[in-house]
Amino acid sequence: MNCLFAGAGSIAPEYAAGLSGSPLSLAGVVDLDGDRAAALAAAHDCPSFTDLDAALAAVDAPVVVNLTSHAAHAPVTRTALEADRHVYSQKPLALDADEARALVALARDRGLALGCAPGTPRAPSQRRAGRLLADGRLGPVGLGYAHAHVGRVTDWHDRPDSFLDIGPLYDGAVYPLALLVSWFGPVERVRVADALDVWPEREERRPSTPSHVEATLAFAAGPTVRLTASFYAPHRSREFYGLELHGDDGSLYLTGTGAMDDDRDAVRFGRVGREYVSAPPTSPAKPYEYVDAVERLAATVEAGSPSRAGGRRGAHVVAVCNAIEAAAEGDGPVAVDDCGATADPPSAPVVRPASDGCNTGTGVEGTSGTGVEGTSGTGVEGTSGAAAIRLPSVGFGCSRYRDGEYVERADSIATALDAGYRLLDSAELYGNEHRIGELLAAPGAPDRERVFLLGKAWRTNHRRERLLAACAGSREELGIDAFDCYALHWPSALEHRGELSRLAEEPVERQEALAFPEDADGELATDDVSLATAWENLEAVYERGWARTLGVCNVSRAQLETVLETGDVDPALVQVERHPYRPRTGLVDCCHERGIRVVAHSPLSAPGLLDEPVLDAIGTDRGLSPAAVVVAWNASRGVVPIPSSTTESHVVSNLAAGSERLTADELARIDALRDPEFER
User: Fold this and answer.
1) How would you write 549-614 as a 3-class SS string?
2) Of 468, 440, 295, the residue nearest 362 (C-alpha)
3) What average pLDDT does this structure show over 169-187?
4) Which active-site residues does the annotation give?
């Protein structure tokens, strides 16, 4: 779709830079500065103009992108709408709320699309923060602190006059306001506001409006937020475009409401009683580009339903800024017109609810294929089996056994949940299911439907009644109605020597005796329960509705074939040890061909693995640790690794690595590490 740029100032090249590979094309540029218009037009092989009416008459462009100076936005948008063009405007939509509302009404009456920057509520870190809110982590949100420290525009802009004329509200505060409105809906009133004319005496060019504004805003359906917008506070201030929200159950910190690039530590969460933990990206996401919002607007035009949602939100933001100015002048609390603004729901989380109405709860996505979330180029192709469960890129292992001894895992599991892990690998063998249940029930925990819980029955409970009892006990300890997947921890059975309930509370010798029973010769005491029989017994768990899917762990390909030939329910998940020394390629391919998800336990624990030069080299190129490279290798192959670190920095970096996708060359270099000794 053709578009016409109205304005060729410093922001116009930023919009134009995103046109490459876009469905949009630049058909013309108009600017009062003819040289500036001609330079941009020449770079895109299109005509330039110095008169808007002439450009509208000459250029066949359904969309006008309004990139003029702040005060010109409203009149230029009106002219374009009256010429029956769809409009996307830089912020603000107008400087007066009445004029902004009139523009929205004009677009509505003519059936035209009207959008307004900023579009950064859809940028990656902002979307991640929105998903965390949707996750229920904060509980009811009561308070917030938002900053828009635009900085000394005389220092960083070659034409600062437009900024100095309007002040920091309309250029800077619009970023946190647009994001907050997209999450919580409209501002109901400005409770109190103050404005200052602070500015260095040495500066010849000075703002004609207050350079520093503070206000307290009451949202109709959300928090009370203290907003600071300033030209005086410089870019290097500790808070640039930061936002902090506090709820009954936890707090969220976002470093930049207007950020376009993502950063691992851009979003942080801290539940009540715990410190902030970084909540990194968990799947690949491209940086936000200015032209993205124009593309979305054009898409609604193509679909025959021109959107004015961005215009309505932009009009409401203008109304908020007007109300802040009025309150600062001493008018007291000022009501704000919502201008028809509606909240944009945050993006759906990685783990989605089951699509089968009979299986209410989490984790099963009723779609064919692999169910790999956001993993383009994973190498998972041609799946012809049953619908696959949808899993996050990385899960968290909850085993207590580390480096030859049993350790307490409650704190690291809490850290993992706070960082954003949404797959927990539990088992009755680990003896800590009740601790996981306590964490999931505590304030600030994610909603149950957002967490995929994998449980496993130990080898001593393969007989039907014991298996059912084990599952019932684990469900009670976790405080859940059903597992998202319940699996056989091991394909072969051992003798039952006693219940494993809360195994972690038993002395180590007792734990070993119950979990690894020995015969008179000191060998493992096996039980005469075949894998086929054990799987049929496991199906009884599914039949009772205690598990939404079933799985099997530590199997060979031949053992998997046995399971597939047995009973009525195919496994949805296979968990095996997998790392570059032992890639299990045949088994993984077999699973993916059948729509079975593969989970890799012990992905980082092979002796010497993390010292491999190839991992270090790839990590150096990408700014990743060798461990993160291995996690990314698994995720790039459509396999879900479940590292189980107890160190916060490793917990976060392992999760963040799930958002990385390696190149074919990098994957091949790592695949070459395969060690036949591990495959035996």
Assistant:
1) CEEEECCCHHHHHHHHCCCCCCCCEEEEECECCECCHHHHHHHHHCCCEEEEECCCCCCCHHHCHH
2) 440
3) 95
4) 430
pLDDT for position 167: 86
| pLDDT of 438 over the 60 cut | yes
Q: Are 258 and 241 in contact (CB under 8 A)?
A: yes
The pLDDT score that the predictor gives to residue 17 is 92
Percentage above 70 pLDDT, the chain: 92
The type of residue at 157 is H
CA angle 208/210/66 to nearest 5° reads: 65
Token code pair at residue 315: 């009009």
- How far is residue 48's CA from residue 31's CA, in Å, rounded to a whole number? 8
Q: How many residues can be counted in the chain? A: 680
DSSP output for 288-351: P-HHHHHHHHHHHHHTT----HHHHHHHHHHHHHHHHHHIIIII-SEE---TT--PPPPPPPSS
Tell me, what's the pLDDT at 165? Answer: 83
Position 619, amino acid: G
Spatial distance between the Cα atoms of 532 and 519, rounded to a whole number of angstroms: 24
Give the count of beta carbons closer than 10 Å to the beta carbon of residue 139: 15
Report the Cα–Cα distance between both ends of the chain, in Å, rounded. Answer: 58
For the ranges 172-186, 394-408, 526-540, the lowest mean pLDDT is seen at 394-408
pTM as predicted: 0.87
- The answer to whether 250 and 141 are in contact (CB under 8 A) is no
**Nearest one of 328, 285, 346 to 173, comparing CA atoms:** 328
